[in-house]
Specification:
By secondary structure, the chain is mainly beta. It is built from 1 helix and 41 strands. The chain starts with a strand and ends in a 6-residue tail after the last strand.
């Protein structure tokens, strides 16, 4: 940890003078010593010698107290009683070492007898990972803290309330997080204590039999030692460390849990005993890439999002006719070997080992990036001569990163979700790009996340400069800038980050 440095107050020299030593040697009595400094009882003022102190979450700074008597003289030594508030933002040791614990402004007080002083301590964070949900966003800091912002009707921010916020707000204390997946009305994450989810639980998608919303992280019942977790709407899934099997929980009536059409709040292994290295969850379907690079999907195939045109089964559909589905993993009709996969609301994209992106499923806004708006069942290469290193599928748009960290997006450009300014195309009544276009910024990114869930039209990413940025819709404060507005195509820095 780094410690903020401040100039120490010079302490006066103590002890006998040279003259005193000479007089003692001659047998003469020494002169009376200088009077001792006043004790705490003589202190009339205290000043903490550090103002406008700013700390990064998890780091420390040293505070020095200067105490004076009624004549303005410095009093030393003194016993200082330290206190700090609130403890989730800042703490202080008996030696005056202040530590930043969480984003916000805390107060540190020094008391010497009846005299005291207080200074504000501004604590900032660095965001290491970010996930964009439909109308909210969540990020994990370098210290493993979970912060969320935006809409919060079902408690999807995990803050313990339903109040929306426009700046990063810490989810209720749980443990250090390593992964986050923000969905439509809920969020899930992996932590040192295992998986946890919060928000809507109408279908048991939080992994709890209690169907009530959870306003703060709830541990997953019967954790199968997950190393990957993903969620979107009515179900959630993950990959277990033991055997790399896929496990799912929540609603299953469309086959999205991969175990028939039953519902279940407790995690259950997906049929087929396949070994997965990547997995993602969409609206009523799930896809994964096995350890040998083969893509599989299961759940509804209403938009051809399973990557195959044949009808494997028919699943009942509420308030409508039965629709095609797969109730257990079905191989995507592709000859490519894939490294990873990203699932949007009703489409999917995967990266082949050479960096070519392939997409399939719904395409009404050009989200497949093929240059057209017709949906396809067989994976088609994205229309770009670019080798991608990462892809993220959203509601009706998709984004990816190239090897240099350049960001590309395609699909629905409502509110500037593509980050490209005005694109001279429309898909239906919405602005769009049918093929990848470069995000109009000089920033380079380490990761990118297209908002998922119905109505998701914003994008966030972690840039190589170490800051999180978002662009697109900001009607719920999901950009994290401290404002609610129309948003726009220009990447905006998320508030509260350490500079």
């Amino acid at each position: 940890m780094r410690t903020a440095r401040f100039a120490p107050h010079a302490r006066p020299t103590r002890g006998l003078s040279v003259l005193s030593v000479i007089l003692l040697a001659c047998g003469e009595p020494p002169p009376a010593p200088d009077p001792l400094p006043p004790t705490e009882a003589g202190v009339v003022s205290v000043a903490i010698d550090a103002r406008d102190l700013r700390l990064l979450e998890g780091t420390t700074g040293a505070l020095i107290v200067v105490a004076r008597d009624s004549a303005g003289r410095v009093v030393e030594p003194v016993e200082v009683e330290w206190s700090a508030y609130p403890p989730d933002i800042v703490t202080v040791s008996p030696q005056g070492i202040v530590q930043g614990r969480g984003l916000g402004t805390g107060l540190v007080a020094a008391n010497v007898g009846a005299a005291s002083d207080t200074v504000p301590v501004d604590v900032r964070v660095r965001v290491a990972a970010v996930s964009a949900g439909a109308a909210h966003t969540c990020g994990i800091t370098t210290e493993g803290s979970m912060y969320c912002w935006g809409g919060n009707r079902e408690g999807r921010l995990g803050t313990g309330s339903r109040d929306p916020v426009t700046t990063p707000t810490r989810a209720a204390s749980y443990a250090a997080f390593t992964q986050v997946s923000a969905g439509w009305e809920l969020t899930c994450g992996l932590s040192g204590r295992g998986p946890a989810c919060w928000g809507s639980n109408r279908s048991g998608q939080l992994g709890s039999a209690d169907k009530a919303d959870a306003l703060q992280p709830v541990p997953l019942a019967d954790d199968p030692s997950l190393i990957v977790i993903a969620t979107l709407t009515t179900h959630s899934c993950g990959i277990s460390a033991r055997g790399h099997e896929a496990w799912c929980w929540g609603a299953g009536w469309a086959g999205q849990r991969g175990v028939g059409t039953s519902d279940g709040a407790r995690p259950e292994p997906v049929s087929g005993a396949l070994r997965f290295r990547a997995l993602d969850v969409g609206w009523l379907f799930t896809c994964g890439v096995t350890t040998d690079g083969q893509a599989y999907c299961w759940g509804t195939n209403h938009w051809l999002q399973l990557g195959r045109a044949d009808t494997l089964a028919m699943c009942d559909w509420p308030n409508g006719p039965a629709r095609p589905c797969a109730t257990e993993p079905a191989a995507v009709a592709a000859t490519q070997v894939f490294d990873t996969i990203a699932v949007g609301t009703s489409h999917a994209c995967a990266l082949a080992s050479g960096g070519t992106a392939y997409c399939w499923g719904r395409n009404d806004a050009g989200q497949l990036g093929t240059g057209a708006t017709e949906g396809v069942a067989l994976p088609q290469a994205v229309a770009a001569s670019v080798a991608f290193t990462m892809v993220s599928a959203g509601d009706r748009h998709t984004c990816a990163l190239d090897a240099d960290g350049g960001a590309w997006c395609w699909g629905d450009n409502t509110s500037g979700a593509l980050g490209t300014g005005v694109v001279g195309e429309t898909c239906g009544d919405a602005p769009c790009a049918r093929a990848p276009v470069v995000v109009a910024t000089t920033l380079r990114f380490r990761s990118i996340s297209a908002s998922r869930g119905e109505g998701g039209v914003h994008t966030c990413g972690i840039a190589t400069d170490g800051f999180a940025y978002c662009w697109g819709s900001n009607e719920r404060g999901q950009l994290g800038t401290g404002e609610i507005d129309a948003g726009g195509p220009v990447p905006r820095k998320v508030a509260g980050q350490f500079e």
